[in-house]
């Protein structure tokens, strides 16, 4: 990939344009942008396999912000590599550098974001609860391997053609202390997450949070499944963050938005409100407990799925990115000092 290719990456949606190659992958159309990079549909040249390739935003090349993004990008690759494979988490397949730009390759899931399902009128509430139960089990798996997601929301859960959810976008994820299950103190500055699904402790700027911050986000998604909207309609202003920290949440069964899924179930209300407790001590202590409560409501048993250990060869590839992350972080500190 040449420098001119990098400059033109944002224009790969033109079907007539020549294909751009990144490592062993041919880029397809751009499908999204996140805090750390640009997502593309891609295909492995030799294996003829469809994948999702995330590339550091090429518009940041030569910009001071790039050092921070390099570190965040590499940390995402490292985090994904440390989570053993799980059928409910979009797995990482490859990582590397192309013309100085880091990239991450993940599985391609055929389906649509849960956010799309939540927009459908008269959606089957039990089907949505089942999806959220399985999502919570996948999140519990990541927690058990010391990773907080910290940006759970409907657009970061892909529901495949069989109705099974897959958690994606670990760009805001953080490793936690093995003993306390609290996030490490290392940070590159600034809050991460989407305000409408952010826990009060995150909104208040606490640097030490645990797995119950993700439980709150799962509760916010359940609230939206029941009512058609998240607990608070906020965008991230200071006033919005104060609302998240101090505001009262109306019972889901009392909210009647146009197109909202049918609610009115006291038992489901109770599960949802427990997950959304203002104080972490009032919530389910784990995502597994939340999943079990949803399984009880469904009259089903939550089944924990087997996971496999990532290969040593791949961990070796990610170690390279770990070194890049450390170097970029130091560079970023120097730029901001």
Total DSSP E strands? 11
What portion of the residues fall into strands of 2 or more residues? 15-25%
Sheet with most strands: strand arrangement? 1-2-3-4-6-5
CATH top level of the largest domain? Mainly Alpha
CATH topology of the largest domain: Transferase(Phosphotransferase), domain 1
Estimate the global geometry from the Cα principal axes.
globular
Task: Give an overview of the whole structure.
The protein is α+β, with helices and mostly antiparallel strands and 337 residues long. The protein contains 10 helices and 11 strands. The protein has helices at residues 3-8, 65-82, 114-118, 125-144, 200-203, 212-227, 238-246, 266-275, 287-298, 312-336, and strands at 21-22, 25-33, 37-44, 50-56, 92-98, 101-107, 111-113, 147-148, 157-160, 165-167, 174-175. The strands form 3 sheets. It has a 6-stranded antiparallel beta sheet. Strand 2 and strand 3 form a beta hairpin. Mean pLDDT is 78; it is low at 1-16, 183-190 and 329-337.
What are the main properties of this structure?
337 residues; alpha+beta; Phosphorylase Kinase, domain 1; Transferase(Phosphotransferase), domain 1; 2 domains; six-stranded antiparallel sheet; three-stranded antiparallel sheet; 10 helices; 11 strands; globular; disordered N terminus; disordered C terminus
């Amino acid at each position: 990939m040449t420098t001119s290719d990098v400059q033109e990456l944002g224009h790969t949606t033109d079907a007539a344009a020549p294909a751009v190659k990144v490592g062993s992958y041919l880029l397809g159309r751009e499908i999204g942008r996140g805090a750390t990079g640009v997502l593309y549909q891609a295909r492995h040249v030799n294996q003829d396999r469809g994948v999702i390739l995330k590339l550091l935003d090429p518009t940041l090349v030569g910009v001071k912000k790039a050092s921070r993004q390099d570190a965040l990008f590499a940390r995402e690759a490292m985090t994904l590599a440390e989570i053993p494979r799980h059928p409910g988490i979009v797995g990482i397949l490859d990582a590397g550098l192309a013309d100085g730009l880091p990239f991450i390759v993940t599985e391609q899931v055929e389906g649509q974001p849960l956010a799309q399902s939540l927009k459908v009128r008269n959606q089957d509430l039990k089907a949505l609860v089942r999806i959220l139960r399985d999502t919570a089990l996948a999140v519990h798996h990541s927690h058990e391997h010391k990773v907080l997601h910290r940006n759970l929301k409907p657009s970061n859960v892909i529901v495949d053609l069989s109705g099974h959810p897959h958690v994606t976008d670990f760009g805001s994820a953080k490793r936690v202390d093995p003993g306390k299950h609290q996030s490490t103190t290392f940070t590159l500055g600034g809050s991460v997450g989407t305000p409408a699904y952010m826990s009060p402790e995150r909104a208040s700027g606490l640097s030490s949070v645990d797995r119950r911050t993700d439980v709150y986000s799962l509760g916010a998604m359940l609230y939206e499944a029941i009512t058609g909207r998240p607990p608070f309609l906020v965008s991230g202003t200071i006033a919005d963050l104060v609302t998240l920290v101090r505001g009262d949440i109306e019972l889901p069964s009392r909210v009647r938005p146009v197109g909202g899924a049918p609610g009115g179930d006291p038992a489901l209300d109770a599960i949802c409100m427990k997950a959304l407790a203002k104080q972490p001590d009032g919530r389910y202590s784990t995502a597994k407990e939340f999943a079990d409560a949803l399984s009880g409501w469904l009259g089903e048993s939550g089944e924990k799925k087997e996971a496999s250990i990532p290969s040593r060869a791949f961990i070796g590839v990610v170690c390279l990115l770990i070194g890049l992350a450390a170097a970029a972080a130091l560079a970023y500190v120097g730029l901001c000092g």
